[in-house]
Amino acid sequence: MNLILQGGDIAAAELASLAKLTAASRIEERGERVFALINAAPHPDIAPWARAHKSDFGFVPDGRTLYDCGLFVTDMDSTLITIECIDEIADMFGLKAEVSKITEAAMRGELDFSESLRRRVSLLAGLDESALMRVYDERLQLSPGAPRLMEALKKAGITTVLVSGGFTFFTERLKSRLGFDHAYANTLEVAGGKLTGRVLGGIVDADKKRTVLLEQKEALRLKKEAIIAAGDGANDLKMLSEAGVSVAYRAKPVVREQAAYAIDFCGLDGILNWFEPA
Question: Which of 171, 250, 262, 264 could pair with 185 in a Cys bridge, judged by C-beta atoms 3.0 to 4.6 Å apart?
């Protein structure tokens, strides 16, 4: 296995020290602030070392390329984009603090996601529908590296899926903007140009996210090892558990603990550094 380090300013002497600690056979520079410690062995001091140097790390099999994968599935809020859309919508109604508190509890796994979503959406009843476009235009930003990641995935012929506990108003626009093959999310009910405080149809929750991934896996006839999935909250865990390359992106502790890889300092395109050039 090779140990990939990315991000942070790492002095040559410090890198050499880590290579010795992990009994790596050599060090390869694979990009700007990206290093591979070849044939490195796990060590309990790697994680604290990486945190101290603001560096993301992960062990990867030798020779794995992006072309070995066939499916990428990602969450939207706080993963593909930097905001929680429902929190920003609530801010238009002067309710951001109240809604954000529920959002955080749900993402930590302390509340049932479906119930928490219905509670949050109910607080938005009466809000003008135009607030959604204001959030998209004025507040929604892509996470660093998202466009570069999507470009590389499409070049490699990988099917891309956006699945969110958020809303179709945003996922459909991002699907078009970034070229996703599929997008799934919840639909806000609107009547007379205002939000009713209800969601139409079933909720896209943890089980639905997992189901979407498994349906794509079956359709594409892929093995688990050929699937990349990214998320940040507890409602992403079931989906992440079905991916060979599961990514906790700037995630809650419960997600970082269970995912194969974590990105806390780099952008989403840091995923690419876990694969060797084809």
Answer: 171
Reduced to 3 states, what is the DSSP secondary structure of residue 92? coil
Nearest to 158 by CA among 75, 239, 74, 68: 68
pLDDT-derived band at 278 (thresholds 50, 70, 90) equals low
Q: Torsion over CA of 275, 183, 264 and 120, rounded to 10 degrees?
A: -170
Q: Please give the Cα distance from 139 to 167 (Å, whole number).
A: 15
Q: Beta strands 227-231 and 34-38: pairing type? A: unpaired
Cα 69–chain centre separation: 17
3-state secondary structure of 57: strand
The type of residue at 236 is D
pLDDT at 112 over 90: no
- Identity of the residue numbered 82: T
Q: What are phi and psi of 65, to 5 degrees?
A: -120, 165
Cβ 67 vs Cβ 30: under 8 Å: no
Single-letter amino acid code for the residue at 1: M
Tokens 């951001």 — which residue? Answer: 96
| Side chain identity, residue 107 | M
Whole-angstrom Cα distance, residue 231 to residue 38?
Answer: 28
Cα-Cα-Cα-Cα torsion 231, 236, 153, 135, nearest 10 degrees, comes to -60
pTM above 0.90, yes or no: yes
Joined tokens for residue 234: 């507890």
CA-CA distances (angstroms) from residue 123 to 50, 90, 189, 198?
42, 8, 13, 9
DSSP 167-196: EHHHHHHHHHHHT-SEEEEEEEEEETTEEE
Residues in the chain: 278
Residues noted as catalytic: 75, 77
Q: How far apart are CA 131 and CA 18, in angstroms?
A: 50
